[in-house]
Design brief:
- This protein has helices spanning 3-31, 42-55, 89-103, 118-153, 158-172, 175-189, 203-237, 240-247, 252-265, 271-278; strands spanning 58-61, 73-76, 81-86.
- The protein has a 3-stranded antiparallel beta sheet, with helices on one face.
- A hairpin with a 4-residue loop joins strand 2 (73-76) and strand 3 (81-86).
- The protein starts with a helix and ends in a 9-residue tail after the last helix.
- 66% of the residues lie in helices and 5% in strands.
- The longest helix has 36 residues, at 118-153.
Length: 287
């Protein structure tokens, strides 16, 4: 088997194992939390508990059981009374895995939209999330490269000091703090921009809704790419091969464009994919 094929298979298997571990840990952590939201009407709550029973997460009894703790819901029907209890977490976990591998069923939501399919909710929210992240990357990556190049070319000068100080402030503030301040200022105080993603409307409504999350996502990305670009370009500009290029007659501008920038971009360009994937977690801002 060729080395590249063996290496690719190894990385894919490692990716699947890592994903499985992350999903399993997340499942147990979420299940240990109390039910944060439940349907309000009795019929809707009964339907939700019935669905959880069918999926293998709840136990349904016709009499109370002290060994199972407090019932989640007691349904008093015309001819029979049902007591719904949480099954042990480990049983819920295996029921969840069975549903994924046999029916590609990831369960139903118990917090955001109780009773609705978890995969349906993810697909609904991932569309605007990807759209916002694409715009954020298109804005932040070029700006990060430009600021990093300026800081490297003006190393230890006032331009470098201003950019480095600004970047340290931007990278120190988490995105959820930035978006909270922007929403407080632009949405609640001045009421210039909307507070939520519109369910329907014109293009202008969606553009206005994207302003705050795009800005909040851009800050961290711009800061990260600026730092890496400055560090890589500074290191390349002090290397011996660039000094050799200058001694052969290339001007400073030619040596930077032909050699320094090309070599410094090699470890930075793959970061774009990782930055995009990592920023998808910010879908929680869209609600």
């Amino acid at each position: 088997m060729p080395y590249i094929v063996k290496y690719s298979l190894k990385r894919i298997i490692l990716l699947l194992i890592t994903t499985f571990i992350i999903l399993s840990v997340t499942f147990f952590l979420v299940k240990m939390l109390p039910d944060s939201a439940m349907p309000t009407s009795e019929q809707a709550l009964f339907s939700y508990c019935q669905n959880q029973f069918n999926e293998g997460f709840f136990e349904r009894l016709t009499a109370a059981s002290d060994s199972l703790g407090e019932p989640v819901f007691v349904y008093n029907g015309q001819t029979i009374t049902y007591y719904f209890y949480h099954k042990p977490i480990i049983q819920q976990y295996f029921a969840w895995l069975t549903g994924i591998f046999t029916k590609w069923n990831w369960g139903v939501s118990s917090a955001i939209s109780p009773g609705n399919s978890a995969m349906t909710i993810i697909l609904e929210r991932i569309k605007p999330s990807i759209l916002i992240n694409v715009f954020a990357m298109l804005i932040s990556v070029p700006l990060g490269f430009v600021f990093g190049i300026i800081a490297a070319l003006k190393k230890n000068k006032w331009q470098d000091n201003v950019i480095s100080t600004t970047i340290m402030v931007m990278i120190s503030v988490p995105s959820f703090v930035t978006i909270s301040l922007l929403m407080l200022w632009l949405s609640y105080t001045t009421k210039v921009l909307p507070t939520q993603w519109p369910t329907q409307g014109e293009i202008g409504d969606y553009v206005q809704a994207m302003v705050i999350p795009v800005i909040s996502l851009c800050f961290g990305t711009i800061a990260g790419f600026t730092r890496y670009t400055r560090a890589e370009l500074t290191e390349v500009m002090s290397s011996e091969f660039l000094l050799l290029a200058r001694t052969k007659g290339l001007s400073r501008r030619q040596s930077i464009i032909r050699h320094a920038l090309r070599n410094s971009m090699v470890p930075i360009v793959p970061m774009i994919i990782g930055e995009f994937v990592g920023s998808l977690y910010d879908y929680r801002f869209i609600s």
